[in-house]
Design a protein that fits this description.
Blueprint: E1 3-8, H1 14-24, H2 29-32, H3 40-61, E2 65-71, E3 81-87, E4 92-100, H4 103-115, E5 121-129, H5 137-153, E6 157-163
Parallel strand pairs: 4-5, 5-6
Antiparallel strand pairs: 1-6, 2-3, 3-4
Helix pairs in contact: 1-3, 4-5
Length: 164
């Protein structure tokens, strides 16, 4: 069980492809194959492990980016980005949000995080893991497409991945 790419804004962008290559290589069967049978606090722990695993994979694979977990770019707003990357010299940031396959969460995170960086190029990644059987995966995929379209209009990049 690994994250699978569902939507990408620009398949020719080398940096976006390097992020995706790291993420799709993460084996996470031990985290998500039975997580729905667990309590909410235990599920949160597994998601935290996945976040740490993703951050360490990126740190070990992509040079020239400073990576942070739970980064709060604006203390007055108090929203934290699950995984944040900042390029020291290229003038862009990476925002990776990890959520269940819920279209409302995908849209909410995209809008709020993109608003935090109005004049900065953003590489935004929605990384979704299995939710309940009632969660609407096709709707989530539809919103991945909307995020892609908006990112392109803003001069940024987008990728949507789902752990399957």
């Amino acid at each position: 069980m690994k994250p699978q790419l569902s939507v990408i804004s620009d398949s020719k962008d080398a940096f976006l492809n390097s992020i995706i290559k790291c993420i799709v290589g993460i084996e996470c069967s031990n985290l998500f194959s039975t997580h729905l049978e667990k309590s909410q606090p235990d599920q949160r722990k597994l998601v935290g492990e996945f976040q740490s695993l993703t951050e360490s994979t990126l740190k070990n694979s992509i040079e020239g980016i400073d990576w942070y977990k739970e980064h709060c770019p604006n203390p007055s707003i108090r929203d934290s980005i699950d995984i944040f990357g900042k390029s020291a010299d290229s003038g862009f940031v990476v925002v990776i949000e990890i959520d269940k396959t819920r279209a409302d969460q995908v849209a909410k995170k995209f809008v709020s995080r993109m608003a935090l960086f109005p004049s900065t190029k953003v590489y935004f990644v929605s990384l979704c893991y299995p939710g309940t059987p009632n969660m609407n995966k096709p709707e989530c995929l539809k919103y991945f497409g909307y995020c892609k379209a908006l990112a392109l209009r803003m001069g940024s990049h987008y990728a949507g991945l789902i752990v399957e």
